[in-house]
Amino acid sequence: MRDRKKLFKEFNKEYYTSGGYTDYLSDFKQEGLDYAKQLIKKIKPEKSWKFLDVGCGLGGVVLGLRKLGYEAWGTEVSPFCLENSPVKQYLQFGDILDLPLADNSFEVVLTCDAVYYLKKEAVHKALLEIYRVVSKIFFIENICQDSIYNNQKDNYDPLRSDKDLLTKAELDHLIQKIGFQKIGPLFSKGKYSLDFNNLYKKI
Ligand SMILES: C[S@@+](CC[C@H](N)C(=O)[O-])C[C@H]1O[C@@H](n2cnc3c(N)ncnc32)[C@H](O)[C@@H]1O
Fold first, then answer.
1. Angle subtended at Cα 59 by Cα 43 and Cα 2, rounded to the nearest 5 degrees
2. pLDDT, mean of residues 50-72
3. Which of 1, 141, 186, 200 is most buried, by the most CB atoms less than 10 A from its CB?
4. If you average pLDDT over residues 189-193, what whole number do you get?
5. Residue having the nearest C-alpha atom to atom 4 of ligand 1
6. Which residue, among 40, 33, 38, 41, has the nearest Cα to 58 in the 3D structure?
7. 55: CA distance to ligand 1 center in Å?
8. How far apart are the CA of 16 and the centre of ligand 1, in A?
């Protein structure tokens, strides 16, 4: 756990303002709102549904969903995000491998670009945690071994392994083996469609 605590501290201000994330501070609110709008359009949730974003960064999607009138919460491991998010009152510390949340407590759980920091063998545990806390819909976006952005030249991120990730097919297979049924991509065209991005139903 000591090593993981050290890793969490590396998601600091420098990380969110350099490399692949140079524009993050200026873009996260608009990107979060775009995501939130697409998600709502696709899944047509009831107004009472609760959303959770695991590894939510500065909380752009949480902010976007709340602007659209939905109850949304986030978990993060980054002290920088937990202290500086504009929606920090809706965020709490939560490692994707051990979420401090009750079973079936959110109708929708999403995680965007957080799983690729895990070693391959830990991804199964993370997906089981998500399966435990979600009751209806799961959305995941992730850079995989065979994603076109899985290289440090196009998307510099010193904390992401670019050699030891699951392929898109392996990740999809693992998610379905756990008990999710595939609905399909949220983004099928445009820049967000370049990564692995899929919606699943809990069965
Ligand atoms: C590339 S950023 C993505 C942030 C946000 N989801 C987005 O798409 O804008 C990855 C985030 O995952 C978080 N993260 C890394 N490891 C995590 C873990 N074990 N549990 C939860 N979040 C984690 C990092 O702190 C970081 O904010």
1. 115
2. 98
3. 200
4. 86
5. 57
6. 33
7. 4
8. 11
Decide if pLDDT at 148 tops 90. no
CA 28–ligand 1 middle distance (angstroms)? 13
Q: Which residue's CA is the closest to the ligand 1 atom numbered 9?
A: 57
Type of residue numbered 63: L
pTM exceeds 0.85, yes or no: yes
Contact residues of ligand 1, CB 6 A cut-off: 11, 28, 54-57, 60, 76-78, 81, 95-97, 112-114, 117
CATH architecture of the domain 2-202 equals 3-Layer(aba) Sandwich (3.40)
List all residues 6 or more positions away from 121 whose beta carbon is below 8 Å from its beta carbon: none
Atom of ligand 1 minimally distant from the CA of 160: 1
Residue 96 pLDDT class (50, 70, 90 cuts): very high
